[in-house]
Structure formats: C-alpha cells, structure tokens
Design brief:
Strand content: under 5%
Distance between the termini: 15 Å
Number of helices: 8
Length: 247
C-alpha cells in the first residue's frame, strides 16, 4: 500500500513539474517577445525603469522555471533525495521571488495609468523627430494601432512645436489616417488631416485602443501567473512528501 502511494506521489510530482516546465516556457516566450518586439514596445518598456526591470525579471523567472521543471521531472522519476531537496529549496526561493514581484507590481501599478503616460508624452515627445527614440516609438505605436496620443489629438496641444518647423501642425503626421497601418502606408488625406479636419484623423487615444487590444491577454497572463504559483506550491508539498517516503 505504501509503495503504491509512493508511486502515485512520484507520478503526480512528475505531472506538476511538467506543468511548471510549460509555465516557464510560456513566461520565457512572453519575456523574449516584450524585449525583441518589432512593433516598438521595446523602447517604451526601456523608457520606464520599472517595466524594463519587470520584463527581464519575467524572462529570468521563465528560464528558471523551464530548467526547474525539467530537473523536477528527472528527480521524481529517479527518486533522488538530493535532487528533490535541491528542487524544494530552489522552487521555494522562486515562489517567494514571484510573490514579491506580484506585490511590487500591485504597489507600483499607478505607473501604468493614463495620467502617467500622458505626462510622459507631453514631457518627452518631439513630434516628427524620428532621431529621438521616444518620439519615433510613439509615432510607430500610433501608426500601428491607428490611434493618436494617450487620450486623443488634444494631448499634442501642450507639446511645443519644433523650432525649425514654424508651419508644423499641432497634430503630428502619425495621427493621420492611412490606407495601410504602417510607415509605408499612403495617407488618406495628409493635408486635410494636418489642417484639423477630424474625419481624416485617428481620434481615439492609444491608451484605450491598446488596453482593449490586450485586455484578454492581460487576464490570461494573470491567470497563468496564479496557476504557476499554485502548481509550485503543490510541487513543493509533493517533493517533500516524496523525499520523506524514499528509503
């Protein structure tokens, strides 16, 4: 009976570690996507130290979970007490680190508010100056998502015009409607857009557009994080029970 229980526990631990392996692979992939994303989010993340740090923490956690899940599977199948103890201590440290990261993300969540991005846009945006990384990134985001500013074109009323472009419109070119949402796309009517005719402008703010676009994925990422934490907790319990049961 005890042998059957130990065998069941061994395979359950293998199953939990397999899910940790998959969760780590998902976090690793998401972290790599955020860092190398070609649509321009890499520069926006890099401009915010908290987001920049968070992306690399997610990448590191994904890599560790990926490796840990693999080692846990091996430890369970081989019934190696040393490997199981190492697994338990290591996954405990990761569990505490992830829990701390989640608490910090909740505490500093105000850095992702509409007001924060609006203030940063008005402070750093240099309109059509594509030599500036921040401005070029914002232009790419506005073109890709067919949006304008954080809240709308009115955000740019407080942004000073470039000194060498006295005839420049208050609304940047990136807010003008295009036939194709890319830098190579032809303008629907650039002159009418820049003179303020609203039907040729993208009037919706990027904050709302991007939030709606990624709302499903945000909840999915949150559910994945909760699931990974629960699996890690059960894996630690099974690891210790298996450790105590091995003769």
């Amino acid at each position: 009976m005890e042998g059957d229980c130990l065998s069941c526990m061994k395979y359950l631990m293998f199953l939990f570690n397999f899910f940790i392996f998959l969760g780590g692979a998902c976090l690793l992939g998401l972290g790599i996507w955020v860092i190398v994303d070609p649509t321009g989010f890499r520069e926006i993340v890099a401009a915010n130290p908290l987001l920049f740090t968070g992306a690399y923490i997610m990448l590191a956690m994904g890599a560790m979970l990926f490796l840990l899940g693999f080692l846990g599977c091996c430890g369970a199948i081989r019934e190696n007490k040393c490997l199981l103890l190492f697994f338990f201590m290591f996954i405990l440290l990761i569990f505490l680190a992830e829990l701390s990261a989640a608490i910090l993300a909740f505490i500093f969540r105000e850095n992702l508010t509409r007001e924060f991005f609006t203030k940063e846009l008005k402070k750093h945006y240099l309109r059509n100056n594509d030599t500036d990384v921040f401005s070029s990134t914002w232009n790419s985001v506005m073109i890709t998502f067919a949006c304008c500013g954080v809240n709308g074109p009115e955000d740019f009323e407080a942004v000073p015009l470039l000194p060498y472009s006295p005839l420049e419109s208050t609304t940047p070119e990136a807010c003008c409607q295009r036939e194709l949402q890319s830098r190579e796309g032809m303008f629907v009517n650039k002159e009418a857009c820049l003179t303020g005719i609203e039907r040729f402008q993208n009037r919706q703010g990027c904050y709302t557009v991007i939030l709606n676009s990624f709302e499903t994925y945000v909840y999915l990422a949150g559910a994945l994080a909760i699931g990974v934490l629960a699996i890690e907790l059960f894996a630690m319990i099974f690891a210790m029970c298996l450790f105590r049961g091995i003769q």
